[in-house]
Amino acid sequence: MTRTPGPRRHWLDDVKHVTVIYRVLIAVCVALVGVDFFFVKSGHFAWEHWVGFYAIYGFVCCLALVLVAKRLRKVLMRPEDYYDR
Predict the structure, then answer these.
(1) For 4-61, what is each residue's pLDDT tens digit?
(2) What is the C-alpha to C-alpha distance for residues 85 and 76, in angstroms, rounded to an integer?
(3) Which of 29, 45, 63, 82 could share a disulfide with 78, CB 3.0–4.6 Å?
(4) What b/e string do you get for 38-76 counting C-beta neighbours within 10 Å, with b at 16 or more?
(5) Residues 51, 36: contact at Cβ < 8 Å?
(6) Helices (H), 1-82
């Protein structure tokens, strides 16, 4: 058995596999928000009792981290030859 030359393809290079993973993740997220209807929540503030509050809160915080990191990269980035000088 000989291997053909060239770049090796991985299972995530196939668009069908990525689509399946994407759909499974969406289904799990929807299911977790759906389960939120069946649990009694004990929070300190009124908005903690909203359905899906922690999912939305987590998404917004993650999005904020990414946006802040993109801005911070412009401040902290050094030239390519920074250590070679």
Answers:
(1) 677 888 888 889 999 999 999 999 989 988 998 888 888 899 988 888 898 899 999 9
(2) 18
(3) 82
(4) eeeeeeeeeeeeeeebeeeeeeeeeeeeeeeeeeeeeee
(5) yes
(6) 15-35, 53-76
